[in-house]
Amino acid sequence: MPVPGEGDGTLSGQEVWDLLLARWQVSYDLQLVQRRGRIYLQVMWAYLEQQSFPLSQEGYLLKLEELSGLLNGLGVAGQVRHWLLTTTDKPRQGRAMGLALEIPAGRASEFLL
After folding, report:
1. How far is CA 53 from CA 15, 29, 57, in A?
2. What integer best gives the mean pLDDT of the chain?
3. 32 has which bridge partners?
4. CB 101 within 8 A of CB 41
5. What is the three-class DSSP state of 4?
6. Each residue of 36-77: pLDDT tens digit?
7. Sequence-separated (6 or more) residues with CB below 8 Å from residue 57
8. How far from each other are the two terminal CA atoms of the chain, in whole angstroms?
9. CATH 3.40.50.720: does it fit domain 13-104?
10. CA 61 from chain center: how many Å?
11. CA distance 61 to 93
12. In angstroms, what CA-CA distances link 4 with 71, 79, 84, 90?
């Protein structure tokens, strides 16, 4: 397994979860969003440890596994890992954080409609 932040490697759902906890001490919800021909990874303000969060711990990990599979398929695992390790921003109520993904040529066409 690659050292977090080094190389591109692949991401697992558990690694993403660990990175979120290390950065913000809570398990924020993540979403992929497409806008104007670009794909963004958004860190939402809701988190697993909230009583009102709609997913169980198992459901949350399954969502992260699916998301990490998509990120690996897009070839952006290294970007996401680096961003989660280095960002100084924090999601705020009603305002998500976003990372514009730099998708290698040819990969985006599989995901963009």
Report:
1. 21, 9, 10
2. 87
3. 41
4. yes
5. coil
6. 888 999 999 999 999 999 999 999 999 999 999 999 999 999
7. 48
8. 33
9. no
10. 12
11. 23
12. 15, 11, 10, 20
